[in-house]
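Attaching the record inline, Q. Sequence:
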Amino acid sequence: MAVRKYPEMTLDTTTLARLFGTLHNTIVQHGRDYVYQERLSHRMHAMHYIFARLHGYQDSYVPYTLAAEDGLTVGCSCPRPTPCAHVAALWWAYIHESDTFGLVPQTLWQNNPSIVPQWAGGTFPWDKIPANKPSWQQPWNEEKSLATWESAVASTKSTRRWSDSQMARMLPELDESWCNAPVWRKHWAEFVVAQWTQLTQQPFRYWWMLWLNAPYLPLDPIWPAYDAIPSDEWLYCAIHTLSRNRSHMAAFINVLTEIAPKGGIQWLHQTIELAPALDPWHLARARLLMHSKRPQEAIALLQTQWPSSKEGQRLVRHQLIEWLPPSQQLAYQVADCLDSSSDECLEVLRPQLGEKGWEALRQAKANRRVSPSAEQGDLTALAQEFVPVWPPGAD
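Structure, as predicted:
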């Protein structure tokens, strides 16, 4: 293990930034890649040291920087000359993300003053220090998240097997807020187009199980590549889907029905009928009816079996708005507007409600913000002022 001395230097971000600027471009790039790929975990600091655990492509290493009266000592547990790319990653992270560095727990060093020199010896109790959450498991941050995404995209192009890529590791763990960010969705769409061949070489089962574990992922562009899959593959995915009993069941059923082999639709019908709890809001059954070209039955089922939960009501409303003719959508659109935190829906509904009805709805939304726990009956009565017909319990 090589070390390097920097006399008369102090341990602070300004000094480290100056040292970082003296590194070779290749080392700098590799160091940044390590950080972007979330390979630098267990980041620790104190007034006289910084260190972390770096998970390389072959092994794990411990880059560190120690401060003493005569200057800085820099080293790494790897065999390369110091400062190596591992040290560059440590410095870059501390310069730009110092808030991600924690303190060594007091319980570790209180009765063991020599614990800090154990870093490079491989005996440090890493399991007793919380690891830093990768950026893709954290809420969307325009600058940091995009940098991570772009690095993953670049590495995918040079990775021979999809399963070995950084992207394959990220997607199952992606924070839901990423999928709600328009910027990320745009980049995702571009990635799917650019990597279509590589992505669709994965078996249908791979994407389906990924979607089951992360139903917020926008995988709709992937499904057209699998318009014909073996019956046993479809059945495997269908059984796993039904066993999850998730609120997203209707979306899964919708895709399964589109690619169902002969007999698959009937099997789904019978399975859900035998276990109604799989489909508490009747959305899956309604979709199966719609797929069987029985639209009136599908709509009647949803209208007569109104959910008691707010989530169920919201999802059923959205489905009815999609299926009903425009003349019958208004009641559900008004209910959606009352529950929405946005005022954009007010302007959309203005032409249909007229000025008097629109003003009443605007006032109702304002009151709803002040008293969001209003009784359902109050909202039902209120809605009757806006539309001539209102389904019972539509709030």
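Residues 328-395 form one domain. Residues 374-381, 388-395 have pLDDT under 50 and may be disordered.

More tomorrow.
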